[in-house]
C-alpha cells in the first residue's frame, strides 16, 4: 500500500514559484462583471441528501469527541457483543 502526501503532490504539479503578479485592471473588470451578474439574477442553491447525511455525520462525530473528552461516553458492551456475534455468523 502506498501512502502519499496529497498536498505535496498537488504542489509538485502546480509548482511553488511563489506568488504570481496580479493584473489589477483585469481583476477589477472581472469583479465588476460578477457584481453586475449577481445584482439582477437570483441564484437558487440546494443541498443534496448525501451532503446533509455527511453534515449530520460530522455533527455526530463532534458529539462523540466531546463526550469522550469530558468522560461522559459510555461503551455499550451488549451492543458490541451482538455485533461481534453477528460478524462471526457471516463467515
The percent range for helix content is: 55-70%
Q: Report the strand count.
A: 0
Rg of Cα set: 25 Å
For the terminal residues, how far apart are their CA atoms? 26 Å
What is the overall number of helices?
4
Shape assignment? elongated
Given as residue ranges, the uncertain stretches (5+ residues, pLDDT < 50) are none
The ordered H/E elements are HHHH
The proportion of residues in beta strands is under 5%
Main beta sheet: strand number and arrangement? none
Mean pLDDT: 76
Structural class of the secondary elements?
Answer: mainly alpha
For the structure shown, list the relevant keywords:
single chain, 91 residues, mainly alpha, elongated
Explain this structure.
- With 91 residues, the chain is mainly alpha-helical.
- The protein has 4 helices and no strands.
- It has helices spanning 6-14, 24-40, 49-70, 77-90.
- The longest helix is centred in the middle third of the chain and has 22 residues, at 49-70.
